[in-house]
Input
Amino acid sequence: MNNKIPPPIVTLVFGLAIYFSRSIFPDLSNAIFNIISMLLIISGPFILISAVRSFKAHQTTINPINIDKATSLVQSGTFKYSRNPMYLGMALILLSISFKFNLIGGIFFTLLFAIYITRFQIIPEEAVMEKLFGEDFQKYKSKTRMWI
Output
């Protein structure tokens, strides 16, 4: 794989960009956005942790830098609904930060995060998964969405 930056670090950088760019964008905060932010900050980590637990239950690597060490194609739990629930969880965390601090800039940065993760993490990971799991991965890919 050509990406050597761990996705949690990428998420942190985008989260900081959302927070520190808030003075550039209009402040649209209100009580509804705070509630949405709370729901997202609960659901994002929940999805991410559920995915990690599925990997651990199948005794396969969660390290996105060494995806070629995967020993199992996980298709249960949150992986029934998304091929990338960990990245989905990270995106929901970024959206939570967006709704709390910087809605317009946050949506922009979260979209950039999704583009970046898709290009530099998901596409290379899926190429490795296809080599490792062949037809099983193709079937899984055909019935399960990349994000949601």
